[in-house]
Amino acid sequence: MTELGNPYAYKVWDSRGRPVPCQVWDHDMRKTYHQGIDKIYVSDLEPGMKYYFQVIDRDRGTVLDERVFKSIKLSSKNNIRFAMASCACDFYISHSRVMWDLLFAQKPDFIFLVGDAVYADFRCPTTETDIWRRYCETRSRLRHFRQPHLIPTLAVWDDHDYGRDNMCKSFKYKNSSKRVFDLFFGSRNTDGFKNTMGVGSQFNAFGQRFFFLDDRYFRDEKQCGGMMWGYDQQEQFLENICQNSKPAWVFNGSQFFGNYIKQESFLQDFGKNFTDVLSKLRKCQAPVVFGSGDVHFSEIMSVDPKYLGYRTYEYTSSAIHSLNLPLKWLYRNPRREAFTWHHNFLIIDSTTTGHGLKIKAKSINARNKVAFSHETVVTRS
């Protein structure tokens, strides 16, 4: 995050004191706001080595900020521990102060943000100026962006960081909103990671694959017989996931099987399209597990073998700090195996085993207690 009229310089070195190449590869500053973004590209990293990153006031030579990070070899093991979170409203000040510290204390390998990491439409009419301001305000306030040790973070949006509640491909500012999201959360293609369509991406590591689908930029109006991801994104995803039999996680901002609450979900809004996607996933050799956010409670849903030919699960993580929903009707999900409505995030240990995944999940709340835990194995055989 940069300040208008205050030029920064950047420095990276390793634990042996050797300088490491870094450069600004993208930058944006808006006339309507005092803060901007520099995106830094660091090259020649060695897996396992500790690195130090400094932000320096170019005029005065003083150090303004400092972080520590490591690079990881993506083929070094067959398991990954990732934190999964969504719905991070920066106006929930008390919980936003503690939740990210608790998340980082779990020491995940990666953090996956599955929607509403920014409430760009909160308390504003949502113009291009509002979107930029709200992204900057969120980055300034949340302790996720103030941790001394960096953890790689992959993100996909939902409606609030897209720019308007329940909005689809007709959103007026979709292109400018995508530019801002890419600035704050996007990455270059690199080993194991590639950008797909919209703000979607694919990440391959530790014998597993992770697909992040853009559920807003190409989304049709609900109940119109249309598509959640748009034809091109859907077909690209299906082609990629069916290329091999490596287990796959599929992440979406909206729930997949959340039709029981009669709110936004793939099954609720695009039932015919969802049935078609499931029929094609059923033919793939890769076992599939689903991940989602959005609904302001966390749960683990069992997905009956009638859909894909084997039992799998949908993991929903929401909200890390936003509106709570302690309502009785939320308990009426026949698929549910675990649930909490308190502020929380999920920590998931996912390990390849034979032709599937061994998954251990736990929900951590604001008191640093385990709200629920769940273990399972997902396999096609």
What's the gist of this structure?
The chain is built from eight helices and 20 strands. The protein is an alpha+beta fold.
Describe this structure in words.
By secondary structure, this protein is an alpha+beta fold. Helices cover 20% and strands 33% of the residues. The chain has helices at 93-105, 128-141, 159-162, 174-185, 231-241, 266-269, 271-283, 305-308; strands at residues 2-3, 8-14, 22-29, 35-42, 50-57, 63-70, 79-85, 110-114, 153-156, 193-195, 201-205, 208-212, 248-252, 288-292, 298-303, 312-316, 336-340, 344-353, 356-365, 370-379. Strands 10-11-12-13-14-16-15-17 form an eight-stranded mixed sheet. Helix 2 runs parallel beside helix 4. The radius of gyration is 20 Å and the shape is globular. The N and C termini lie far apart (48 Å). The mean pLDDT is 94.
Layout of secondary structure:
Elements: E1 2-3, E2 8-14, E3 22-29, E4 35-42, E5 50-57, E6 63-70, E7 79-85, H1 93-105, E8 110-114, H2 128-141, E9 153-156, H3 159-162, H4 174-185, E10 193-195, E11 201-205, E12 208-212, H5 231-241, E13 248-252, H6 266-269, H7 271-283, E14 288-292, E15 298-303, H8 305-308, E16 312-316, E17 336-340, E18 344-353, E19 356-365, E20 370-379
Parallel strand pairs: 7-8, 8-9, 12-13, 13-14, 14-16
Antiparallel strand pairs: 1-4, 2-5, 3-4, 5-6, 7-18, 10-11, 11-12, 15-16, 15-17, 18-19, 19-20
Helix pairs in contact: 2-4
